[in-house]
Structure formats: C-alpha cells, structure tokens
Prior knowledge:
three-stranded antiparallel beta sheet; mainly beta; disordered N terminus; 4 helices; 181 residues
Amino acid sequence: xxxxxxxxxxxxxxxxxxxxxxxxxxxxxxxxxxxxxxxxxxxxxxxxxxxxxxxxxxxxxxxxxxxxxxxxxxxxxxxxxxxxxxxxxxxxxxxxxxxxxxxxxxxxxxxxxxxxxxxxxxxxxxxxxxxxxxxxxxxxxxxxxxxxxxxxxxxxxxxxxxxxxxxxxxxxxxxxxxxxx
Length: 181
Ligand SMILES: Cc1cc2nc3c(=O)[nH]c(=O)nc-3n(C[C@H](O)[C@H](O)[C@H](O)COP(=O)(O)O)c2cc1C
C-alpha cells in the first residue's frame, strides 16, 4: 500500500480510504438484499497473451453510456481470471439465453476447462465467442477502476448483436429463472 494523504493504491488502482469507511453491514443481509435485484446472466470472455481463452460468469454487467457506447462489469480481485482480464485489451460480454444454464455454472466453476467442448467463434481482437446467446457485446477494455474487493471494467462497445427470439436467463435470489410472459 502506498499513496498520498487521502488516496491509497491497491493492486495499482486508486481509492479514497476515508470515503469508503462507514457502519458495519452484515454481509449475509447485504447479499440477500442485493439478491432482490433481478439481473441477467453474462459470461465475459477474452484471450490471454499465450493464446488461451478464459472467461467468467458475471451478473454485475450494466449499461453505462450511449454516446460513446460504454458498458461495465466487475470482477472479484481474488478471481483466478483477475490478472488475465487486467492484461486483456478486448473482452466480449455474452448475455446467456434460456437453455444455457450449464454455461452459467461452467464459467463459475474453478479448476475445470470452462470452455470444454463449446464451439467457439473468433471475435474482435481474437476474443473467443460463445454460440447461441441472447446478445453479444464486443468491447475494447478502456478503464479499470477500484471497486472494493472487485475491479470495475469499463468497455467501449465496438460491435453488438442481439437475437430477439432467444429469451435471456434471469438471476434472482441466487437462482436462475425464466421470464414468464
Ligand atoms: C450468476 C453468477 C453471477 C456471478 N457474477 C459475478 C460477478 O459479477 N463478478 C465476479 O467477480 N464473480 C461473479 N460470479 C462468480 C464467478 O463466476 C466465479 O465463480 C468466481 O470468479 C470464482 O472463480 P475463479 O476464481 O476461478 O474466477 C458469479 C457467479 C454466478 C453463478
């Protein structure tokens, strides 16, 4: 740790220690309250300098800006993919569709080949793309911000696609659910 009087550095990311101090919040209650907010489920992928694909299941994805087209997501700084994503110049965000629950689980598991027998295409910057998703955002990795025990990645969307006939998966109260019309 190193920094000026009001700022600190953690893993090279700047943050203000005084601003983040506050009352203790029970972690379980915090997680449960967050679980009341339904999200989609995404898998973020990229390719390492060694050419190997890597990826992780993420529900922290959000739109950020329309002009320029920006999106964001956050990654735990203890994730096995942390340093690879910090180095990656591009990433792709896949919005999983109904029937892709297995991909949600697969890309959240440690110690396995997450890509297994998934048929990949190659996207911008050589990023591995997953098939049959509901939407796809191909991004340049623009900024990385300190976010507590997570890092916030901001991506500039260089290409996006959607498949409106595929319904997105929903994550709510710790479970994957379907959209009922
Ligand atoms: C539905 C769902 C959403 C998740 N969202 C995130 C997320 O937004 N950020 C994150 O860092 N991990 C998230 N995770 C956890 C990661 O997918 C993964 O399990 C974790 O990073 C541990 O694996 P690793 O250390 O090998 O990367 C999520 C898991 C699930 C099942």
